[in-house]
Design brief:
376 residues, alpha+beta, 2 domains, six-stranded mixed barrel
């Protein structure tokens, strides 16, 4: 309790310095949380449709390298996959880039075609309902204001196929485009309307539901080994290793790392300089009997007050900006990411202040009678 009172009274006496540091930490935390939200949102815009669909395993053509839009599997592949041990159900899945007229404008979109009561559908519906017949679709919620909201009708160009939006689902975009989930028959009709000379429409992939208790990774390995011409991947692996995801993650992760480094340097230098400036006072406290651990504890309390306050303000500011400003993607502050960021910032700040703590522990009470003495 004495350490807390000492830390609090000192912070009150030096409100300007501690206020400036809290403001600096607030800005840095804002940047960390905002960049993390943008990174997560960008990755979701690329592969949210994969990560948040119901198939446990996706089956690609063996040459596709986990690229859904570049994948083609033989029409008989779902039947062969269904015979593999651990597979409860296997259905065709179609994925195609299309141009649609939505809200009076031409838009690039991605169309997913799946068996309506089978794997490959969005996991959760945010608004409306799931398609119940051909010609209906669930759209990614991030595009609802662009003509893909419940009740809107989009028209495929060319071809003229009309698709009614009956529901929306969060975090289901693909390749940073509005995404539609419709019946496989709708998918076939759209592709044939765009290219009427096509002899047939073949699946892009297979959507697999594994049996209860089966390991999706093991099932995916068996499918790859037993079915010729395909490569199977779990839902998470398919999302993580999709083209473009790793490069985007690595680029923004470097920026995040640099921001964490700045947090560490700013906090460490501030408290080290503060400790040097108040060395005579600390030495006098040691001379009158204050234990070194109490002074170090007071330093820790100040670090917690400054970094904790800065984190709360920075995170709140980032959440507010993401809510009211349009960043072009579906981005928000995830609680799990917030907890991880808070732990990382506090840990780095504590490590940064080890130099100041070491300086306090090396103070000799006798130096109170020797002006100018400093710890080595």
């Amino acid at each position: 309790m004495g350490s807390f009172l000492l830390a609090w009274r000192e912070a009150r006496r030096a409100k300007g310095r501690f206020g400036l540091l809290t403001g600096a930490v607030t800005v840095l935390v804002f940047l960390v949380v905002f960049q993390q939200a943008v990174l997560d949102g960008l990755v979701t815009e690329f592969v949210g449709a994969i990560r948040n669909q119901s198939a446990d395993v996706l089956v690609y053509g063996e040459d596709a390298r986990l690229n859904l839009q570049g994948s083609v599997v033989p029409p008989v592949a779902p039947e062969q996959v269904a015979a593999v041990e651990g597979v409860a159900r296997a259905e065709p899945l179609g994925v195609a880039a299309v141009t649609v007229e939505a809200g009076g404008e031409l838009e690039d979109a991605t169309l997913f075609g799946h068996v309506l009561d089978g794997p490959g559908a969005p996991v959760e519906i945010e608004e409306g309902r799931r398609p119940e017949r051909d010609g209906e679709a669930v759209a990614s919620a991030s595009a609802a204001d662009d003509g893909f909201g419940v009740g809107d009708v989009v028209v495929v160009q060319p071809g003229g196929e009309r698709i009614e939006i009956v529901g929306t689902a969060r975090e289901t975009s693909f390749s940073v485009t509005p995404t539609l989930f419709a019946s496989y028959a709708t998918y076939e009709a759209v592709l044939l309307s765009v290219n009427p000379d096509a002899p047939a429409v073949v699946p892009s992939a297979g959507a697999v539901e594994v049996e209860d208790g089966a390991d999706p990774s093991a099932v995916a390995e068996r499918i790859t080994a037993e079915v010729e011409g395909v490569e199977a991947a779990t839902r998470d692996r398919a999302a993580d290793e999709a083209p473009g995801v790793q490069s985007v993650s690595q680029s923004l992760s470097i920026v995040l790392l640099l921001t964490y480094v700045v947090v560490t340097i700013v906090t460490g230098f501030f408290f080290l300089i503060l400790t040097v400036q108040k060395q005579p006072t600390l030495t006098l406290l040691r001379a009158v009997g204050a234990p070194a651990r109490s002074l170090v504890a007071a330093l820790g309390m100040q670090v917690l007050l400054v970094v904790g306050g800065g984190f709360v303000l920075g995170a709140a500011l980032a959440a507010l900006v993401l809510r009211v400003a349009s960043v072009g993607i579906e981005a928000g502050v995830a609680p799990a990411a917030l907890v991880t960021t808070a732990a990382a910032v506090l840990l780095l700040a504590a490590l940064a202040c080890l130099g100041a703590a070491r300086r306090i522990t090396r103070l000799d009470p006798a130096w109170a009678t020797l002006p100018g003495a400093t710890p080595r």
